[in-house]
């Protein structure tokens, strides 16, 4: 990697930190003299953050939420991509399942919590099921759109070269649909994290969501804000990891897009 490219990466990372650092600084300054029980100084919340999440019970709640979120999200990704590919390839199948798809994805997750609670009871199965159900639809629909958008010329060339169905799927169809699939994965990431918190608040007895709700009920507002800060950190780290995976898997797409844009300017 050349020095100019390293400089661009460092500059981009620094630019991305400007707004978060400015927001935290502003929060610190405006809340420094706060006497409100609901909006404690940021310094107090950070001290409570270290006290809560630096202990074994706090780490246990954080670990529980992260594991359940990952299980639900990975299940949603596998289901959405696995079913989205054949549906995207078959117009007849798309028409057949369209009513069920539209009905299911429009259901409010909050309304499903009592139903899933009765079916699975409290615990990991209930929470993972809710996370997967909520997060699967953006992945499923974007996979369908990505497969439908694959250039017919590419598929025809693959058939002319007598590639097997497995080879066409692995070498032509999936790479071409992957940018659209990652768009669905990005949308589902925030949805899955939100449902992780909601599920642990209303149907669980542990996890970060339960901790935040319990802190609010007991008027331990610094602890509540400490939980919210942890959720923001988990969301940020998850988004950065997904972006890293996307850059690795779609490096060819970024290079091709840059080459095409360069060609348009000439």
UniProtKB/TrEMBL annotation:
Location(s), subcellular: Cell membrane
Record Pfam families: BPD_transp_1
PROSITE patterns: ABC_TM1 (PS50928)
CDD domains in alphabetical order: TM_PBP2
Keywords: Cell membrane, Membrane, Transmembrane, Transmembrane helix, Transport
Transmembrane spans: 12-30, 66-85, 106-124, 130-150, 171-203, 223-242
Membrane topology value: Multi-pass membrane protein
Occurrences of domain ABC transmembrane type-1 (ranges): 62-246
Keyword Transport found: yes
Statement: the UniProt record of this protein carries the keyword Transmembrane: yes
Family assignment from sequence similarity: Belongs to the binding-protein-dependent transport system permease family.
Protein name: ABC transporter permease
Protein source organism: Actinomadura graeca
Lineage: Bacteria, Bacillati, Actinomycetota, Actinomycetes, Streptosporangiales
């Amino acid at each position: 990697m050349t020095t100019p490219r390293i400089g661009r990466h460092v500059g981009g990372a620094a630019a991305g930190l400007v707004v978060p650092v400015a927001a935290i600084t502003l929060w610190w300054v405006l809340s420094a003299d706060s006497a409100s029980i609901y909006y404690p100084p940021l310094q107090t919340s950070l001290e409570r953050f270290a006290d809560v999440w630096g202990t074994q019970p706090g780490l246990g709640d954080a670990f529980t939420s992260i594991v359940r979120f990952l299980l639900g999200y990975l299940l949603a990704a596998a289901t959405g991509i696995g079913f989205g590919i054949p549906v995207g390839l078959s117009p007849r199948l798309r028409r057949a399942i369209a009513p069920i798809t539209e009905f299911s994805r429009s259901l409010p997750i909050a309304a499903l919590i009592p139903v899933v609670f009765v079916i699975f009871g409290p615990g990991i199965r209930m929470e993972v099921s809710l996370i997967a159900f909520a997060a699967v639809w953006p992945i499923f629909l974007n996979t369908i759109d990505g497969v439908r958008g694959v250039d017919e010329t590419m598929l025809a060339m693959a058939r002319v070269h007598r590639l097997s169905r497995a080879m066409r799927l692995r070498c032509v169809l999936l790479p071409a649909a992957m940018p659209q699939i990652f768009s669905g994965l990005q949308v589902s990431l925030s949805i899955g994290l939100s449902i992780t918190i909601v599920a642990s608040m209303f149907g669980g007895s542990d996890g970060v969501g339960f901790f935040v709700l319990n802190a609010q009920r007991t008027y331990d507002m610094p602890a509540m804000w400490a939980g919210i800060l942890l959720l923001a950190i988990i969301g940020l780290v998850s988004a950065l990891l997904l972006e890293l995976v996307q850059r690795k898997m779609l490096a060819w797409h970024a290079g091709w897009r840059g080459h095409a844009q360069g060609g348009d300017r000439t």
